[in-house]
Amino acid sequence: MSDDPATGSATFQRVADIIAETADIERDKITPESHAIDDLGIDSLAFLDIAFAVDKAFGIKLPLERWTQEVNEGKVPAEQYFVLKNLCARIDALVAEKAAKA
Amino acid sequence: MRLEYFEMIDSVVRLDRAAGQIEATARVPEASPVFEGHFPGHPLVPGVLLTETMAQASGYLILAHLGFERMPFLTGVDKARFRSFVGPGATLSVSATLEHDGSGYAVTKAAIRHDGKALCDAELRFRTMPFPDGLDGPMRQRAEAIGLLALAGLGGGAAA
């Protein structure tokens, strides 16, 4: 699958489809560089819906609580989790981690 | 049920923490101010209170699942269906299953049966967060009164 900056990875394609459907955002507006909150206007409740759909689609558990805590404590910039290409990289890592444990 | 106090669950009859399942009983009171308006001369339990009943059964399930370390708050109701009517004096069987235990949220499927027939069902979503100040105690008290703490192995039982 392509990792073209404009279209992103296969993971991005799935995540973007989920966001478009769950948060009612035009699919074309969602790019790997999009910030879920600042650019797409996704609020915390909608993000939980997206997390549920992502958890189900990829068979993982996004550690939202830990991420939120790290951002709130200033340990990690929010972009690391909420810019979609970064979010997708973390999803890929969680999927790989789960596969390694299986 | 004490409808005016939003105490919907009377007793928990089964809890399977490993499987993420709960079954509870809720007895609709013979009389309530709610029935004076819903509807005059034709009392029916409002669908919104049936939804609350499913949410409370789900909430107790999540509380037990999380060992009373976090409080669930209802954030979403999906696919709610009200398949029949129910009025004063009915005994309702309420069940809920934990569909997903996410990070900071949970999803359940819940249903209510009456006289062996499906009354309503829904998919419910909750945000889970640390107990706000002062809420932990009353929630544990209520959980003990309906028999949840004893079934969950979290202490209590005397008042169950």
From TrEMBL, chain A:
Q: Ranges for the Carrier domain?
A: 9-95
At the top level of its lineage, which domain of life is listed? Bacteria
UniProt-recorded name of the protein: Acyl carrier protein
Alphabetical UniProt keywords = Phosphopantetheine, Phosphoprotein
Give the SUPFAM superfamilies listed for this entry: ACP-like
Q: Does the keyword Protease apply?
A: no
Automatic annotation (TrEMBL), chain B:
Database matches in SUPFAM superfamilies = Thioesterase/thiol ester dehydrase-isomerase
Q: Does the keyword Secreted apply?
A: no
Please name the GO terms that the record assigns under molecular function. Answer: (3R)-hydroxyacyl-[acyl-carrier-protein] dehydratase activity
UniProt entry keywords in alphabetical sequence: Lyase
Give EC number(s), comma-separated.
4.2.1.59
InterPro entries, per database record: FabA_FabZ, HotDog_dom_sf
Domain of life from the UniProt record: Bacteria
Q: Which Pfam families match?
A: FabA
Which PANTHER family did the record assign?
Answer: 3-HYDROXYACYL-[ACYL-CARRIER-PROTEIN] DEHYDRATASE
- Report what the protein is called: 3-hydroxyacyl-[acyl-carrier-protein] dehydratase
Source species: Methylobacterium aerolatum
Upper classification of the organism = Bacteria, Pseudomonadati, Pseudomonadota, Alphaproteobacteria, Hyphomicrobiales
